[in-house]
Amino acid sequence: LVIVVSVILPTIWRYLQTLDAPPYFLGLGLSAFSFSGLLSGPLFGLISDKTRTTKKIILFANCFEIVGNFMYFMGYSKWLLLSSRLVAGIGTGAGSSIFSFLTRNTVPEDRSTVFAAVMACRQAGLLIGPAFNIFLRLCDFQLGPFIVNKFTAPGIFMCGLWLLLQLVVLLMYWDFPEPASRGSREDKQQQEDGEDEEDENDEVRPLVHPHELTGSYGTVSIPPPRIPTVANGNLPRRSPSPPEQSHSKFLREEVVVLLTAQFITLFNQTALETMVTPLTQKFFNFGELENSIMYCVCGVEVIAGFVFVRWLSRRVAERVVLAIGLILCNISCVWCLIFLANPQGALAEFIIGVFLQVLGLPFVAVAQVSLFSKITAEKTQGFSQGVRRSIGGLATILGPLWAGGLTSNLYVMLGVMMALLALLTVSVCYLLFDFMFLGVVDSLSIWLLFL
């Protein structure tokens, strides 16, 4: 999914200019992709919770990506370009089903490292996507009635990649059977085998079942622990879930803070992405090649950050990872507000600002998504992850819209980014001190959040 966004970032601004689009269309084009994903995410997640399937959802969602990218390739007008982003964005809703699948098949202790690895793979798309423009910018030929150039080539290229992914998912991916249902079938078979053996030999008794009284023949005086078992003696790898709650669970303090973290970090990230291309064109005269190289370097930095977070999350609590990320993000926003709000053409100051902004993203991203998966019920992970991704989608809509209209007034744009980040930092600190001093630790969700 990241490749879809990143492969067009170096060229979409000039593409819109060739279609006589006003500057605010840059924000609209980037936001449209997130808007349709905002709506489709909870829906796909809800379907995933009901059906416990992921493969069919991915195959269905990919169809929208294929059609949307082909529309981007056609590019007859600015409105068709905007519509292409809307259609392609529907496919991003499959992400909620994927994160739900990961949550159901990982234990809480390993979840941070698993999510860090998955996010690193996603961010690899941020690295690879712009790199494709190094050769896509050389395209200049006719394909039937369509013109293939450096602006339209990313559309047909991504259309081909999504078709390839369809084949890979169709032929090489299968959903895991549900551990609970598989275990219950094996337990039932074991019980039937035990009854057959009891008929043959009265001295042989079946395994003790939970409804039997303690102290009977074949049992010990200690009640059996409430642990699910399967026939081969191995426990299914299922993560504990908090008690089932109503939709008001999203209004709990710790959930609100994590959703706020999702919103603010993505708002700032997409605002920066929108601002960077016009800024480099205006002050440094960057073209497609220079922008592609810049995005590649940022991708390398982000991947290295996720690898480090994967290592760090095994040694420190997730709240520490979140705190480190917030500190880095605050430093980067202060730097950008001081040096980039009124740039004087100093490339070194620009590079440092972008470096600091990108550096804090892996820490906040991994910590908040891992903690969120632990404080929401496993049974409804698809819908919960859909809500989380919708909050992120709202941020990726508002971020480009905000930055796209304020590229000439960076003090206001960066000031709002700094204010939002300060609000998030204060909220996290308040929540930490609130539970520390008031001793509100009897809730399972809070216990998971602050251990």
What tags apply to this protein structure?
single chain, 451 residues, mainly alpha, Growth Hormone, Chain: A, two-stranded antiparallel sheet, 17 helices, 2 strands, globular, disordered C terminus, transmembrane
Can you walk me through this structure?
This protein has 451 residues and is mainly α. The protein has one domain: MFS general substrate transporter like domains (Growth Hormone, Chain: A, Up-down Bundle). The chain is built from 17 helices and two strands. It has a two-stranded antiparallel sheet. A hairpin with a 2-residue loop joins strand 1 and strand 2. The two termini are 33 Å apart. The C terminus is likely disordered.
Q: Brief overview, please?
A:
This is Major facilitator superfamily (MFS) profile domain-containing protein. The protein has 451 residues and is mostly helical. Helix content is 72%, strand content 1%.
Shape estimate: globular
Main structural class:
mainly alpha
* CATH fold descriptor: Growth Hormone, Chain: A
Biggest sheet descriptor = 2 strands, antiparallel
Radius of gyration: 25 Å
The share of residues in helices is over 70%
SSE string, helices as H and strands as E = HHHHHHHEEHHHHHHHHHH
Order of strands side by side in the largest beta sheet? 1-2
CATH superfamily: MFS general substrate transporter like domains
Domains (count): 1
What is the average of the pLDDT values? 74
Which CATH C-level class is it? Mainly Alpha
Number of strands: 2
Uncertain segments are 181-186, 200-246, 437-451
Residue share in β-strands: under 5%
Keywords: Membrane, Transmembrane, Transmembrane helix
Membrane topology: Multi-pass membrane protein
Main location: membrane
Protein name: Major facilitator superfamily (MFS) profile domain-containing protein
